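Page 42, continued from yesterday. The earlier attempt failed because a stray header line got pasted into the input along with the sequence. Redoing it now with the clean sequence only.
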Amino acid sequence: MGREEKALRQRLIDTCLKMTALGINQGTSGNVSVRWRDGLLITPSGMPYEDMRPTDIVFLGSDGTVQGRQEPSSEWRFHRDILAARPEVDAVVHTHSVHATAVAICRKALPAVHYMIGFVGGPTVRCAPYATFGSQELSNHAVKALKGRNACLLANHGVIAVGPTVDKALFLAQEIEVLARQYILALQVGTPRILPAAEIATVVEKFKNYGPKPRKS
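This time it went through. Structure tokens are written below.
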């Protein structure tokens, strides 16, 4: 295992530990993957994050071959299929964050209650139909719900966030949880006022240049 691959494997473990620290995941329910060579690296199935070592991360080839001493996450199908369908995406983060999952349990899309939804790439976070975890049916639903979006809900299940890096996918997963919590709290206060699609389109464009610029060497 080369230095670059080992560092990337450790990055997946660190991301899982941060998911727990941020309170957006419980136990071993979440999983993370990143594009690597002709396939992807993905967290193993059912292993506590604090017990993971770089050698426990599984390589899944584009041809379906598995390399590693552990079994890949039970959700490997949607990780594989999302990365195949979205060449601009290099990382996938899946969580069972409480508030976003509560919205998914109601099988509702998350609407534009705040302009930060612009990071999703559109005016809603769609909710994919329910299917058994780990199934090809669920993967098909997820890929469809993510069309033109960087995140989706999974009915009675959780959240998927994608990005060009693991850090950006994790940021978005956390942001979806914040949006969901805001939405649920707003529903208790009154009737949330939803931002129009045209405004979100403006925000999406503005976010393309959002964030710090690379440092000059």
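Notes: The two ends are 29 Å apart (CA to CA).
Reminder to self: strip header lines before submitting.
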